[in-house]
């Protein structure tokens, strides 16, 4: 697959099939992600692969938190929507309207998105990306580059993916089940697997016109 094709065809998959992902394929994806650039080649990332029993335990523990009405406390703080800049709020609003339009009614969209997030997308694999607590903000940028490289590699190798905040809402559960040292913090979880043919997966998010993003100065 050409790189431009991988870039254009990657999209967030919110429902995966039950088909497991081969360990060697996961290794290939992560090895390619390691080519991402980082500050002085610090490579701050660690990857914890939850699958099989450990992922089942995480899904059960998260479900219990959801039933108890707990929203979570991710290591990277969530900012209230009203505090974001006007432009980014408008983009998020457009995305939400797009989803409702895709499903025809607000209730259907809400139900489908809630079910997807509460089941952690039925993904057979979640790759949890951490960085040391002793890190500058630059390491978050590095982890982001690592994550995107990983998802493009996954696309190239026939796998669907979604990066989520949802999967890192309860870091204490993740530390315990995945045996992650206390001096690391969770940046995101990237679900991997085979995309299910489902309406939720046919939604495509839009992007701002290039002229609103790119500013030449010569
Ligand atoms: C850091 C990060 C966290 C995200 N968390 C979630 C999440 O918790 N739930 C979700 O459904 N999508 C999540 N997404 C996916 C975004 O909604 C998605 O990337 C965006 O709408 C663009 O769509 P696309 O990935 O299909 O191009 C997250 C994306 C990023 C980069």
UniProtKB/TrEMBL annotation:
Pfam families: Nitroreductase. The keyword Nucleotide-binding does not apply. Residues 7-194 form the Nitroreductase domain. The keyword Flavoprotein applies. SUPFAM superfamilies: FMN-dependent nitroreductase-like (SSF55469). It comes from the Bacteria. Keywords: Flavoprotein, FMN, Oxidoreductase. PANTHER family: IODOTYROSINE DEIODINASE 1, NADPH NITROREDUCTASE. This is Nitroreductase. It comes from Limosilactobacillus portuensis.
